Amino acid sequence: xxxxxxxxxxxxxxxxxxxxxxxxxxxxxxxxxxxxxxxxxxxxxxxxxxxxxxxxxxxxxxxxxxxxxxxxxxxxxxxxxxxxxxxxxxxxxxxxxxxxxxxxxxxxxxxxxxxxxxxxxxxxxxxxxxxxxxxxxxxxxxxxxxxxxxxxxxxxxxx
Length: 159
Hints:
- The chain is built from four helices and eight strands.
- The longest helix has 15 residues.
- Strands 1, 2, 3, 4, 5, 6, 7 and 8 form an eight-stranded antiparallel sheet that branches.
- It has a single domain, classed as Pnp Oxidase, Chain A (Roll), CATH 2.30.110.10.
- The protein is of the alpha+beta class.
- It is globular and about 60 Å long.
- It starts with a helix and ends with a strand.
């Protein structure tokens, strides 16, 4: 694959998977939590709705370098992203990102406690697997033949 195709695949996988673990620094500790990602390649950004009272907002304010880990274990597809995060009270963007799952946390996009967490990605690594069944067959065949299995595409790319 060309570099541009690898970049395209990273954005496709993030969009397809949709949920990720967001990792931030809390002093010397690393904290991770699941988040619903709004992947917008045209804006070179990954957005999340978050609450003004959450600890992650404080952590991002102190240390904006974050990690995102997307995983589709059924297909054996994974994406790891590093980037810089900011938190804003952009009411227009909040209404744009509002969706039914957000109702689990807030009654409406007008809730004053909602914030936008924006990640501008720097780079990513991805593993694009062959799927669970095919992957298991390839691993078994490799184990029986003393060869390494072809487990799909992988690359590290600058975003």
